[in-house]
Amino acid sequence: MERMGSGVVSWLMRIGESKPGSAQDPVDNLAMFIILICACIITGHQLKGFRWINEPIIAIFFGLGTGITLLVLTGGKSSKILVFDVELFFTYFLPPIIFNAGLQVKKEHFFKNLMNIMLFGAFGTLISFFITSFGSKLFFETLGIGNFELKDYLAIGAIFSATDSICTLQVLNQDELPLLYSLVFGEGVVNDATSVVLFNAIQKFDLSHINAMIVFKFIRHFFYLFTASTLLGVAIGLLSAYIIKKLNFGRDSAYHELALMILMAYLSYILAELFEFSGILTVFICGIVMSHYTLYNVNTLSRVTAMHAFATMSVIAERFIYLYLGMDALDIEKWKAVSKSPGSSVGTSTMMLSLVMLGRASFVFPLSFLSNLLTKSERDKLSLKQQFVIFWSGLMRGAVPMALSYNQFGKSGDDNKQQANAIMITCTITVVMFSTVVFGSLTTYLIRLVLPPSDFENNTHSSEPRSPSSSTIDILPFLSNYTIQDLEEDDRISSRKISRLVLFLSSPYNSVHYYWRKFDNAFMRRVFGGRGFTVHLTSSPEETLEHSLLV
Amino acid sequence: MERMGSGVVSWLMRIGESKPGSAQDPVDNLAMFIILICACIITGHQLKGFRWINEPIIAIFFGLGTGITLLVLTGGKSSKILVFDVELFFTYFLPPIIFNAGLQVKKEHFFKNLMNIMLFGAFGTLISFFITSFGSKLFFETLGIGNFELKDYLAIGAIFSATDSICTLQVLNQDELPLLYSLVFGEGVVNDATSVVLFNAIQKFDLSHINAMIVFKFIRHFFYLFTASTLLGVAIGLLSAYIIKKLNFGRDSAYHELALMILMAYLSYILAELFEFSGILTVFICGIVMSHYTLYNVNTLSRVTAMHAFATMSVIAERFIYLYLGMDALDIEKWKAVSKSPGSSVGTSTMMLSLVMLGRASFVFPLSFLSNLLTKSERDKLSLKQQFVIFWSGLMRGAVPMALSYNQFGKSGDDNKQQANAIMITCTITVVMFSTVVFGSLTTYLIRLVLPPSDFENNTHSSEPRSPSSSTIDILPFLSNYTIQDLEEDDRISSRKISRLVLFLSSPYNSVHYYWRKFDNAFMRRVFGGRGFTVHLTSSPEETLEHSLLV
Q1: For chain A, what is the total number of helices (H) and then of strands (E)?
Q2: Using CA atoms, how far apart are residues A121 and B482, in angstroms rounded to an integer?
Q3: Residue A44 and residue B256: Cβ atoms within 8 Å?
Q4: Which residues of B touch A481 (CB under 8 A)?
Q5: How far apart are CA B354 and CA B423, in angstroms?
Q6: SS3 B444
Q7: Alpha helix stretches (DSSP H) within A18-113
């Protein structure tokens, strides 16, 4: 036992002393990360009942703990244990999370909320971006920190506009508050896409001599990226549906169709990055399209597996990212550089946190007011309590700001910027840690405070909170996610047919939805498949399986 | 369209001109690989009926085609398009393939065949290793090629002893020839493990002054690695079963248990590599243990997903490896170095191919004879036709020899070895290409020739070839793989109980199996779960689901 203990210590020392970036022996780091992710999942399961703790916080603490252990074991020698690898994050860990989001989102609620989602996610993020940019410019120039250019301030605005709503989504229950959930969820994804697009546009454009023409071009470029990314996502999603429908893989090569789905989903992201679009937006849209068409062209088993497998990949990627964030917080060299002027560092972090809150508040409440003006139905309007939940869900900052910040300020550039760069990195680390741990741990408490369970019924037809172990259907979390609900949806749609004319006039969403349904059934499903269309699926034994699964 | 075409060309040129190893922008390469893997899967599906073509050949040709295209587009400038990344292969692509093998193997047949598997896989590989080593020593010294040391010849022996039985397994049908399939399959995995262990042992030991003591130590080390790897695999497999059983994840966090399974499977491989055991053997054993315990401690949906998801990962990894092999074949610099002495290069390749065949033949037939002597039951003896299939299945060489060869001869060492090193690399490429493409494409034809479908019944209780689309059960390829068969197995076991005494004396396998079953039921399943043991599973709705899936 003792020998084993000293073995572990010497192993950890080896990890600590290995240079970051030198990928000569990834086995050590891999083993450590895998053990830590397992520990996070197990601890997360054990601490499920605790109100103040959530999965990101657990992972961050595990990361911090490991980082400190390594630091102590190597006697502070390894000044950088791990440097946040921007590429690793954007190329391998973000895509599965976002794709899974697109695949699992309840399309009905998402599209019902589309106006609000775009309003908050795109327009709101722009407002937050401007406030953060000019707030930080004012602050830095007043205190005389660093020699930042306009470009840097705009980058700061983009960096700190990227929210991380994972904590909030863990608390909100999709079944209890479907509309609010889809709004927070959709806004989160659109927000990520918007801030990354903004950041890339800032890096690309020469903003030193700003004028109306450049601003116009910038806005045009922004909209171009948005549209192109969406179209690419739709195109690859439809292509995957078409190919898998045409090929009609047999039952014995079921994993071939699943492999194609995974590869094409990833391809959508990679192609978007290649064309310099927004991969986040593309892969999200691709997920939505795939969940509407492709998922129904594969056999039932592949369908269930796909949902389940993507959720699993997303879980692993999320834990990894938070662990990484925790370990990364100990970038000693940067902290040393900052320690010469501790005042300005604390000041900057406090200021950025205030700007984050200010930026968020200054669009959530006005835009909610605007949205309520445009909404006719009284029950679809956003109550003040719901507005608060939306406000709160956007306060956390996560891996995206971290990655963008390293991208902008991580390079060791000219000397007169180095101090300011170090301040920005440590400030980002502080904001991410503080918001995730402090704001994150308050989330459950606050949401249950403003939205007690009795408030839930005004948004859902079944107000009962589902008890996880009481019904048979619960063992099929993913199946029930789409089949049962979709079947219900179908029923509702057919029974509504008579009153279609009334709805037609009263609600713009419903009429658009009605025409989309018609077009979808008449043309799209004929070409791209989708639920219940293709003959060989309807009459096949799979329907029997699906039926028996639902009994 | 034209613009798009030129865009593709300039993109390919960019890929071609990017330096290998400089991982600055992986997006280009990733996009290319994903598109190619998709193309392989689609083409493979379309060409399913063709007898001379199989998946590895398609992937290799796609790889070669892309390599040539890149080479032409860059005007031969990019001398190395891709250098085989040994680490990438062993760390990321091999583990899922081997783990999937362990998970999907039919345990009953595997353990029934264990003696033969170890005989061919371990002892046979050693024979082949000695013949290849001393054959190449004789050849090189006679022709005076290179200044190789004994160590290099031994490495050559280990490199060319690693078979690749994927082609053969694609032709053999597990349901038609279960025992032969499990023998070829098991031998392939044990062979991989043996040759990698051998190779590592050779690199570690100082073999310049060989004597009896060193040989003894070498053999002891070899057995130590074998035992330690097996024990580690069992330990991690059991640990995963225990943890997942204890935690009893709810239905709503089904993907957490799946994530734990994936991570712990990978952990077994990584830990084995960390301790310098054989990761291949460890992860294979871990897969077997997990399929016996862990798979039954998760809910039915996770179980189905796990089987399906691992098979999918394996498919993607396999395609990737063969694509890589194809592209890698165009290592221009090495070919240029070799072109100074084309005769010795062709000679070496021919000699190595002959040695591969000789090495294989010289243990398959003698060991089959030995195995037949030890087997009492007439129907379990290996017929000459089956011996030929075993012989043939070990002629193909794949990614493992390639990786080992780059490891041994890929470094640019001292000058007087450089020519010989280049010859060995190109020789490995030639052997891998030739054996996979030529031997591989003959496989279907030859196996159908020596084992026509009428020969199949002597090995299986259900002799009917299953038609893939006729029965309902076929839509559940993975479920049926383990549940139905295992249920049958159970029935048979209980009905045999009376005649146990008779069997006890007549067959050593059955008596060992009987005691194992007793121990398994009395102790192992109580602690580690497994099929049908745990109460909360038996009485839960999942059993109902499982039942309805099987109806």
Answers
A1: 29, 0
A2: 47
A3: yes
A4: none
A5: 17
A6: helix
A7: 26-46, 55-73, 86-88, 94-104, 107-112
Task: Average the pLDDT over B520-535 and give the result.
Answer: 70
8 Å CB contact of B475 and A256:
no
Question: 């780059």: which residue's tokens?
Answer: B406
Q: Where are the alpha helices (DSSP H) in B144-211?
A: 150-159, 166-171, 178-204
**Which residues on A lie below 8 Å from B26 (Cβ)?**
87, 91
Higher pLDDT, A39 or B542: A39
Count of CB atoms within 10 A of residue B121's CB? 24
Per the CB < 8 Å rule, is A44 touching B309?
no
Name which of B87, B267, B468 is nearest A252 (Cβ-Cβ). B468
How crowded is residue A373: how many other Cβ atoms within 10 Å of its Cβ? 9
Question: Phi/psi of residue A331, each to 5°?
Answer: -80, 80
Identify residue B115 by its one-letter amino acid code.
M
Question: Could you tell me the pLDDT band of residue B481, with boundaries at 50, 70 and 90?
Answer: very low
A478/B301 Cβ within 8 A: yes
Q: Which CATH architecture has domain A9-455?
A: Up-down Bundle (1.20)
CB B400 within 8 A of CB B166: no
For residue A98, give the nearest of A392, A364, A400 by alpha carbon.
A400
Question: Do residues B322 and B60 make contact, with C-beta atoms less than 8 angstroms apart?
Answer: yes
pLDDT tens for each residue of B129-147: 999 999 999 988 887 776 7
CA distance B156 to chain A (A): 24
Chain B residues closer than 8 Å to A478 by CB: 254, 301
Question: Phi and psi dihedrals of B293, rounded to 5?
Answer: -115, -65
CA distance B422 to B393: 28
pLDDT in the model for residue A108: 81
Helix axes A300-328, A254-274, angle to 10 degrees: 40
Q: What is the pLDDT of residue A213?
A: 85
Mention the CATH class of domain B9-459.
mainly alpha
Higher pLDDT, B463 or B502: B502
Q: Angle at which helices A399-409 and A150-159 pack, to 10 degrees?
A: 160
Q: Residue B71, Cα to own-chain centre: how many angstroms? A: 31
Mean pLDDT of B104-125: 87
**A309 touching B, CB under 8 A?**
yes
- Chain A within 8 Å of B31 (Cβ-Cβ)? yes
- Domain locations along chain B: 9-459, 472-550
How many angstroms separate the CA atoms of B84 and B401, rounded?
11
CB neighbours of residue B278 within 10 Å: 27
Distance CA A28, CA A30 (A): 5
Alpha carbon of A358: minimum distance to chain B alpha carbons (Å)? 36
| Confidence category of residue A91, pLDDT binned at 50, 70, 90 | confident
Chain B residue with minimal CA distance to A312?
B255
Contact A301 B259 (CB under 8 A): no
- Position B450 confidence tier, pLDDT thresholds 50, 70, 90: confident
Q: Distance between CA A419 and CA A147 in Å, rounded?
A: 10
Alpha helices, H only, B18-84? 26-46, 55-73
Q: Is the sign of the CA dihedral B201, B206, B207, B212 positive or negative?
A: negative
**B251–A31 C-beta distance less than 8 A:** no
Least confident of A125-129, A332-336, A371-375: A332-336
pLDDT at A212 over 90: no
Q: Which of A1-15, A38-52, A265-279, A508-522 has the lowest mean pLDDT?
A: A1-15
Residue of chain B minimizing CA distance to A36? B263
Q: pLDDT tens, B192-224?
A: 888 888 888 888 877 677 788 888 888 888 888
Percentage of chain B modeled with pLDDT above 70:
77
pLDDT at A413: 59
